[in-house]
Amino acid sequence: MTIDATKINREEQDRRAKLVRDAFRSNAQEGLKPNPACQPVFDAFIAGEIELPR
Prior knowledge:
Blueprint lengths: L9 H20 L9 H9 L7
Helix pairs in contact: 1-2
Protein backbone atom coordinates (compact mmCIF):
# COMPACT_ATOMS: atom_id res chain seq x y z
CA MET A 1 0.00 0.00 0.00
CA THR A 2 1.36 3.43 -0.84
CA ILE A 3 0.54 6.55 1.10
CA ASP A 4 1.07 10.29 0.73
CA ALA A 5 4.60 10.85 2.08
CA THR A 6 3.72 14.43 3.02
CA LYS A 7 1.57 13.01 5.83
CA ILE A 8 4.58 11.47 7.56
CA ASN A 9 6.03 13.94 10.03
CA ARG A 10 9.55 13.90 11.41
CA GLU A 11 8.45 12.15 14.60
CA GLU A 12 6.92 9.31 12.58
CA GLN A 13 10.02 9.06 10.40
CA ASP A 14 12.16 8.80 13.54
CA ARG A 15 9.86 6.09 14.92
CA ARG A 16 10.12 4.13 11.68
CA ALA A 17 13.91 4.50 11.57
CA LYS A 18 14.07 3.06 15.10
CA LEU A 19 11.93 0.09 14.01
CA VAL A 20 14.34 -0.61 11.14
CA ARG A 21 17.40 -0.28 13.40
CA ASP A 22 15.82 -2.60 15.97
CA ALA A 23 15.09 -5.18 13.27
CA PHE A 24 18.71 -4.99 12.06
CA ARG A 25 19.97 -5.50 15.62
CA SER A 26 17.65 -8.43 16.18
CA ASN A 27 18.79 -10.06 12.95
CA ALA A 28 22.45 -9.42 13.81
CA GLN A 29 21.99 -11.18 17.14
CA GLU A 30 20.81 -14.20 15.17
CA GLY A 31 23.87 -14.01 12.95
CA LEU A 32 22.05 -12.61 9.92
CA LYS A 33 23.48 -9.86 7.74
CA PRO A 34 21.32 -7.33 5.88
CA ASN A 35 21.08 -7.60 2.12
CA PRO A 36 22.09 -4.22 0.64
CA ALA A 37 19.53 -4.72 -2.15
CA CYS A 38 16.78 -4.33 0.49
CA GLN A 39 17.93 -0.87 1.64
CA PRO A 40 15.67 1.05 -0.81
CA VAL A 41 12.64 -0.68 0.74
CA PHE A 42 13.71 0.32 4.25
CA ASP A 43 14.35 3.88 3.09
CA ALA A 44 10.92 4.06 1.44
CA PHE A 45 9.25 2.82 4.63
CA ILE A 46 11.08 5.39 6.77
CA ALA A 47 10.19 8.17 4.32
CA GLY A 48 6.51 7.20 4.39
CA GLU A 49 6.39 6.12 0.76
CA ILE A 50 5.18 2.64 1.69
CA GLU A 51 3.24 1.26 4.65
CA LEU A 52 3.41 -2.06 6.48
CA PRO A 53 0.30 -4.21 6.19
CA ARG A 54 -1.78 -4.33 9.33
